[in-house]
Write a structure and sequence with these properties.
Length: 58
């Protein structure tokens, strides 16, 4: 493996702790739950998105 192929630990850590990553995952969960006709899971994930955005994390 070449040195150019490696990702520095600091860069990887910043990428994993980016606040938009959990927001995107929760948004995909809400869309998937709506598509699967899972109303309770859909509204729960929408509620989590609202709380996450109101907390100032995004």
């Amino acid at each position: 493996m070449l040195a150019a192929d490696r990702v520095p630990a600091g860069r990887l850590r910043r990428g994993l702790t980016e606040p938009m990553l959990p927001f995107a995952v929760l948004a995909l969960l809400a869309v998937a739950a709506a598509a699967a006709d899972q109303a309770v899971l859909c509204w729960a994930s929408v509620g989590v998105l609202a709380g996450y955005s109101l907390s100032g994390s995004v």
